[in-house]
Specification:
Blueprint: H1 2-16, H2 60-66, E1 68-70, H3 78-87, E2 91-93, H4 104-115, E3 123-126, H5 146-150, H6 154-171, E4 175-176, H7 189-192, H8 200-216, E5 220-224, H9 234-242, E6 247-250, H10 258-261, E7 268-273, H11 274-277, H12 285-294, E8 299-302, H13 306-322, H14 327-338
Parallel strand pairs: 1-2, 1-8, 2-3, 3-4, 4-5, 5-6, 6-7, 7-8
Helix pairs in contact: 2-14, 6-8, 8-9, 12-13
Length: 346
Amino acid sequence: MRRLVYLGIALCLTGCGPPVAAVGPSAAQGTLRPTATAAPFASSPSGDQEAVLGPGGMTLRQEIGAVMMVGFEGALTPGVLGDWRQHQFGGLTLLPINQNAKDPAAIRQLIQSVRGVMAHPVLTATDQEGGTVCFQETRVPCMAGARQVGSQGPAAVQSEMTSMSRDLKALGFDINFAPVATIWDGVAPDLRERSYGQNPQTVAQDVSGAIAGIHAAGMYAAAQQFPGDQARDVIPFQAAIAAGADFVMVGPATPFQRLRAQLGYRGVIISDDLAEDAGSPEVPPATVAVRFLVDGGDMVLVSHDIAVADATYDAIHAAVLNGSYSRAQLDGSVQRLLSLGLRFMP
């Protein structure tokens, strides 16, 4: 009943309130919530797009904000908060590298402040895998990494991930960007500790346990990073999908169409940080973001720079108006986000 009340409030705000973004999250295997029927877009002149309503009665600008997850460097200033109020980004990501807050109380207050300017429940994410990937300022105990705990089996993986995620949930986080579902190739140093191993079946079992643990803590899980063309890596992602992964994270330049076409994934496809994959000044993050969405992605991640987020927002808006990114496709991504419902939202 509480979920339905919150969802009703969110949809009322998007349909009746001022032009601010409204999104609830999208569940990988979730049932679609009833939403307002969107008008057909194919025959609408670009100038009419602003007036056309999409899922949940959202305007174009509301939908654009909804498909963006944004982080920023430093403390939450009035300027950043004002930017958030204006663009109504659908997701907030807090990472230790951004040095947003120094202790649990400050982290909790930051999340509450951002939520205070939102017209809808905003998804708040961080990354606590254990081992070398932990958010020390949260004071959430950093347990063993995937390599160590994976050798103890999926039950141990589930227990550990539940413990860490439950503490993150208490601070106000909704998404743990975990688990890593990539198989270690025996070479890549950054994956040695973060992968559950080199055997596809073993990794698949541990990934399933990790997702079950995150869900048990009341958080959404995001399996990362989809490999694109490494056949044996597909096995753990198949397991992640079967376990109900709410998000799958991919590199913006990764060919990820197989996620839907071959693996049948129906949840949210989110990019890794755009700035890390832009590659050169000639290919700015905003361009990478539009390409990712056109290729079938659902949510773009801008982890560190609010100015880059603003430019990305503008680029997506321009792409819809000029027809290079169809409103119908944007609509589909927003619907997947809405499909998450309020299952793990406060």
